[in-house]
């Protein structure tokens, strides 16, 4: 598959105060998303400050939400920087490849591009991100028309205003869009990354990553630990719908990686450590999840997910390139 998948779940993330200073959890979440099939992780200033040394990371894209943040983009050497259209004037100050983000809403894409290109020189940009409420049936012709009119690579970021974001993302991938942007764990406003990966594999026989199910499960686990308001029920329903319950888990590898063992010790010493004493009669997967400090209700939701996946979710996480620069 030539299309790069960009996850933007860490943009605007509301972090759980209990884990606000633990960079290890967020790093393992990033590793899990890469293992699941994400090509790039889009970060904002808030999430960058919670990661261990994101300099030199080929998998990171930095989003500028305030004009002065171009300093961060230049200092940490990201793969790309996303510049919203309203901040396009700062491009001369940016020293790394830039993606111009253009909100098209439900307007005609090419009418919007004509207005933008008549006022801004688009040639210095490495990619254009088109954000809008696209009709899935028109994505293919839109991308073909775009390629005839411009040579700048295009990133499609479908919004869920019309409840079509998932189908639009799939259509964009099958139409060889240069990139598609989605959001793991949240399908309210954008296409859900995990739904895109599961649908590609189950409905279209496109396996982006051989460990996509394992990565999805791990990412769900870690996301539930550091984010506020995360709901895994959507993922459980997706597994049931698209995997048809045919994959059953028989053995769970409960051997923790060094990072996860350290994390368990940290949480076990907190006021949530008494959860460990309540898990003696549960299955191995549930014991490990609960020992990591996951609330009972969330644990049950994640167990529903892994019960439909033939995966081992506690192996050492995959690592992005240049891990030595991240630790």
Characterise the protein shown here.
- This protein is an alpha/beta fold and 327 residues long.
- It has a domain at 4-212: Alpha-Beta Barrel (TIM Barrel), CATH 3.20.20.
- The chain contains 12 helices and 8 strands.
- It is globular and about 60 Å long.
- The two termini are 30 Å apart.
From the 3D coordinates, which CATH architecture of the domain at 4-212 would you assign? Answer: Alpha-Beta Barrel
Q: How many strands?
A: 8
Q: Would you tell me the overall average pLDDT?
A: 76
Listing every helix as H and every strand as E from the N terminus to the C terminus, the arrangement reads: EHEHEHEEHEHEHEHHHHHH
Oligomerization: single chain
Question: Would you give the CATH topology of the domain at 4-212?
Answer: TIM Barrel
How would you write the strand order of the largest sheet? 1-2-3-4-5-6-7-8
Tertiary shape: globular
CATH hierarchy, class of the domain at 4-212: Alpha Beta
CATH superfamily placement of the domain at 4-212: Aldolase class I
Please tell me how large the radius of gyration is.
20 Å
């Amino acid at each position: 598959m030539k299309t790069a998948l960009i996850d933007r779940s860490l943009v605007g993330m509301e972090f759980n105060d209990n884990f606000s200073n633990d960079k290890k959890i967020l790093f393992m979440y990033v590793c899990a998303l890469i293992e699941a099939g994400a090509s790039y992780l889009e970060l904002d200033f808030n999430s960058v400050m919670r990661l261990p040394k994101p300099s030199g990371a080929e998998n990171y894209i930095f989003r500028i939400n305030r004009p002065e943040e171009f300093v961060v983009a230049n200092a940490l050497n990201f793969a790309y920087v996303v510049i919203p259209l309203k901040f396009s004037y700062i491009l001369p100050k940016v020293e790394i490849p830039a993606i111009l983000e253009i909100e098209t809403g439900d307007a005609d894409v090419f009418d919007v591009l004509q207005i933008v290109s008549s006022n801004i020189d688009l040639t210095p940009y490495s990619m254009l991100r088109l954000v809008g409420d696209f009709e899935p049936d028109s994505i293919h012709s839109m991308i073909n028309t775009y390629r005839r009119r411009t040579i700048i690579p295009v990133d499609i970021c479908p919004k869920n205003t019309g409840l079509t974001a998932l189908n639009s993302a799939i259509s964009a991938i099958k139409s060889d869009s240069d990139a598609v942007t989605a959001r793991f764990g949240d399908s309210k406003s954008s296409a859900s990354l995990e739904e895109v990966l599961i649908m590609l594999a189950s409905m279209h026989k496109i396996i982006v990553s051989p460990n996509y199910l394992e990565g999805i499960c791990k990412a769900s686990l870690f996301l539930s630990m550091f984010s506020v308001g995360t709901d895994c029920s959507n993922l459980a329903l997706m597994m049931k719908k698209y995997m048809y319950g045919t994959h059953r888990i028989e053995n769970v590898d409960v051997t923790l990686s060094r990072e996860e063992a350290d994390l368990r010790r940290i949480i076990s010493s907190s006021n949530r450590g008494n959860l460990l004493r309540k898990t003696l009669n549960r299955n191995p997967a549930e014991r490990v999840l609960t020992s990591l400090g996951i609330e009972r209700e969330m644990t049950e939701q994640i167990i529903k997910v892994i019960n439909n996946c033939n995966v081992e979710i506690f192996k050492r996480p995959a690592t992005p390139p240049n891990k030595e620069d991240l630790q």
